[in-house]
């Protein structure tokens, strides 16, 4: 059983629902849902979103490995990307400044000729 399947089962049980109840709400057969929950059938993103909504969980919650807090991991990743973006923006500003300096330099040399 894979992580997503385990999490689906855990969230379903937390709600106190049977596989039948979930399958009916998803409009699929009980065996089809059982295969999803047992990791026998691969699940597409659309179906994962439907299950997440039904179970009042996020897709990230259903994909999280044991003991992992998906929200904090996501926030940490976003913060790292923000830092990288800020550094790149500084590099762009520095390059723009350098281009302006070179332009002024070329302009002065052309005036002298």
Radius of gyration: 26 Å
State the total count of DSSP E strands: 0
CATH class of the largest domain: Mainly Alpha
Strand content: under 5%
Per the principal axes of the C-alpha atoms, what is the gross shape? rod-shaped
Q: Kindly give the count of domains.
A: 2
Mean pLDDT, nearest integer? 88
CATH fold label of the largest domain? 434 Repressor (Amino-terminal Domain)
Distance between the termini: 78 Å
* Main pleated sheet: none
Which parts are unreliable, with pLDDT below 50 for 5 consecutive residues or more? none
Give the % helix.
over 70%
The CATH architecture designation of the largest domain is Orthogonal Bundle
- Count, helices: 6
Oligomeric grouping of the chains: single chain
Keywords for this entry:
mainly alpha, 6 helices, 77% helix
Task: Report on this structure.
It contains six helices and no strands. Helix 2 packs across helix 3. It has 113 residues and is mainly α. The longest helix is centred in the last third of the chain and has 43 residues, at 70-112. The protein folds into two domains: 3-63, Orthogonal Bundle (434 Repressor (Amino-terminal Domain)), CATH 1.10.260; 69-113. Residues 78-105 form a coiled coil. It comes from Pedobacter heparinus (strain ATCC 13125 / DSM 2366 / CIP 104194 / JCM 7457 / NBRC 12017 / NCIMB 9290 / NRRL B-14731 / HIM 762-3). Keywords: Coiled coil, DNA-binding. Residues 8-62 form the HTH cro/C1-type domain.
